[in-house]
Design a protein that fits this description.
Structural class: alpha+beta
Helix content: 40-55%
Number of strands: 13
Protein name: DNA polymerase IV
GO molecular function: DNA-directed DNA polymerase activity
Bound molecules: magnesium ion
Active site: 106
CATH class of the largest domain: Alpha Beta
Number of helices: 15
Order of helices and strands: EHEEHHEHEEHEHEHHHHHEHEEHEEHH
Distance between the termini: 48 Å
Strand order of the largest sheet: 5-6-1-7-8
Cofactor: Mg(2+)
Number of domains: 3
Domain UmuC: 7-186
Oligomer: single chain
Shape: globular
Strand content: 15-25%
Largest sheet: 5 strands, mixed
Length: 405
C-alpha cells in the first residue's frame, strides 16, 4: 500500500436540516428538529442551534422539546433528501476519479497521485465549493493520509469548513481529542474506556496495543490502530449497482399468478428485512422475469432511500405487473435492491409513524430469534424460505436449523 495516500472525507452538515432550510428559509438560524412528531418520536437530525440546548440525534423528541420548547419540529421527507444526495453525488462523480458513498450524506474520495497535477488540497477545496454553489448545501471535509484520520478531521472542521492534516502530524492531531471521536467507539465502548480512566486519544497512543486487546478483544486492536492514526482500508469505488438480490427458479415452470405473487411478496419482504439487518437503504428496485423460452426481462425504478416493507413491496409488485405481460410459463423471478447506502435507522426515524416502525422492529426481533419464517405477510405464506447469511456482515441466518420446512 502506498505510504503517501491522499484521502478526503466529506460530510454534509446537518444534512436533513440543511435541505429543509433550502425549502423554507424561515428555518435558518433557528433551532430545528427533524424526526417523528408524535410523543414517542425520536430526533433524527437537529440544527447546531438546537445542539446548543443539549439536544442530539437519537434523543426522544419529548425530551428535546423540554430542553428547547421553541424548537421548530419538522417531519422528514426522504424523497427530498434523496434528490439532494443525488445532486451532491453527481458533482463528486464528475470531479474525481475514485469515490465511495458510505451514507446519504457522506463520501470518501481517493486523490492519491493527483498532487502532481493539481494539489490535493486545492482540488478537494474546489469540489467542496462546487457542491456548495450548485446545491446550496453546507459541507465539510478532512484531508489526510487515511479514512479514519480524515473522518475525525471532518468532525473537527464542522460546521461548513475544512481541515488538512499533514502527513506525519496524525498522532499529535488526534492526541488531545476525546476517545468518543474514534469512529468505531459507541456509547458502550466509550463508557468502558472512561471506566478505565481513558478519556483522551493520547492516552491510548501511549498504551501498548496488547492492553487494549486484553479488555476489548479483537476490537481493541482496531481502536488502538485508529487512535494511532493507522488505517490502511481502501476507498472502495461506489457503484450505483452495489446491491443485494434474490432469485427463484421454479422446479416446474408456472403460470399460477397467485403463487407468483405470493413468492414475489415473500422475496421482497425477506430482502427488505436483510436491508434492515445491515442498517442499509436502497434507492433503486429491479424486478426480473424469465419465461420458459429463456427470454429474460428486467425493469427498474428509482425510489427515495428506504428499507421499509410498505414502501418497497408495492413497487416490486408494480414492476412485476408491468413486466409480466406474456401468457407464457414463468421459469424464474428475481428482485434486486441497488444504490445501497448505510444509515437505515436515521431515515426510518422520521419516514414512518412509530406504529409502523415498532411493528417492523417487533417482526425483525422475532425473525432474529425464531427464524425468518416466524412472521410474514399472509400473501407470502406459500413461498419457501429464502433465509440467508447476512449479506453485509456475513452473520449466519437467524435460526440455521429447521430452515427447510
Ligand atoms: Mg452529515
Amino acid at each position: 500500500m502506498s505510504l503517501d495516500r491522499s484521502i478526503v472525507h466529506m460530510d454534509l452538515d446537518t444534512f436533513f436540516v440543511s435541505c429543509e432550510r433550502l425549502l423554507d428559509s424561515k428555518l435558518i438560524g433557528k433551532p430545528v428538529l427533524i424526526g417523528g412528531t408524535s410523543d414517542r418520536g425520536v430526533v433524527a437530525s437537529c440544527s447546531y442551534e438546537a445542539r446548543n440546548f443539549g439536544i442530539h440525534s437519537a434523543m426522544p423528541m419529548r425530551m428535546a422539546r423540554q430542553l428547547c420548547p421553541e424548537a421548530i419540529i419538522v417531519r422528514g421527507n426522504s424523497g427530498i433528501y434523496t434528490k439532494f444526495s443525488d445532486m451532491v453525488t453527481e458533482v463528486i462523480k464528475e470531479s474525481v476519479p475514485l469515490y465511495e458513498k458510505t451514507s446519504i450524506d457522506e463520501f470518501y474520495i481517493d486523490l492519491t497521485g493527483m498532487d502532481k497535477f493539481f494539489g490535493c488540497h486545492q482540488l478537494a477545496s474546489e469540489v467542496r465549493q462546487r457542491i456548495i454553489k450548485e446545491t446550496g448545501l453546507p459541507i465539510s471535509f478532512g484531508l489526510s493520509v487515511n479514512k479514519t484520520v480524515s473522518k475525525i478531521a471532518t468532525g473537527e472542521a464542522k460546521p461548513n469548513n475544512q481541515i488538512r492534516i499533514l502527513q506525519g502530524t496524525e498522532k499529535p492531531f488526534l492526541s488531545p481529542l476525546s476517545v468518543r471521536k474514534i469512529p468505531m467507539v459507541g456509547d458502550k465502548t466509550f463508557r468502558s474506556l472512561c471506566d478505565l480512566g481513558i478519556h483522551r486519544i493520547g492516552v491510548i497512543q501511549q498504551m501498548p496495543m496488547e492492553m487494549l486487546v486484553k479488555v476489548f478483544g479483537k476490537n481493541g486492536q482496531s481502536i488502538w490502530k485508529k487512535a494511532n492514526g493507522i488505517d490502511n482500508s481502501p476507498v472502495v469505488q461506489y457503484h450505483e449497482r452495489k446491491s443485494i438480490s434474490t432469485e427463484r427458479t421454479f422446479d416446474r415452470d408456472t403460470t399460477d399468478v397467485r403463487k407468483l405473487e405470493s413468492i414475489i411478496t415473500a422475496m421482497a419482504e425477506n430482502l427488505a428485512y436483510q436491508l434492515r439487518r445491515g442498517n442499509k437503504l436502497t434507492a433503486c428496485i429491479t424486478f426480473k422475469i424469465r419465461y420458459s423460452d429463456f427470454q429474460t426481462y428486467t425493469m427498474q425504478k428509482r425510489i427515495p432511500y428506504s428499507s421499509s416493507d410498505h414502501r418497497i413491496i408495492p413497487i416490486v409488485m408494480e414492476l412485476y405487473k408491468k413486466l409480466y405481460q406474456r401468457r407464457m410459463l414463468v421459469r424464474l423471478v428475481g428482485v434486486r435492491f441497488s444504490h445501497l447506502v448505510e444509515g437505515g435507522q436515521q431515515i426510518n426515524l422520521f419516514e414512518d409513524s412509530d406504529r409502523v416502525l415498532n411493528l417492523y422492529q417487533a417482526m425483525d426481533k422475532m425473525r432474529e430469534r425464531y427464524g425468518d419464517r416466524a412472521v410474514m405477510r399472509a400473501a407470502g405464506m406459500e413461498a419457501k424460505s429464502i433465509s440467508r447469511w447476512n449479506p453485509f456482515t456475513g452473520a449466519p441466518p437467524p435460526l440455521l436449523a429447521n430452515r427447510r420446512r
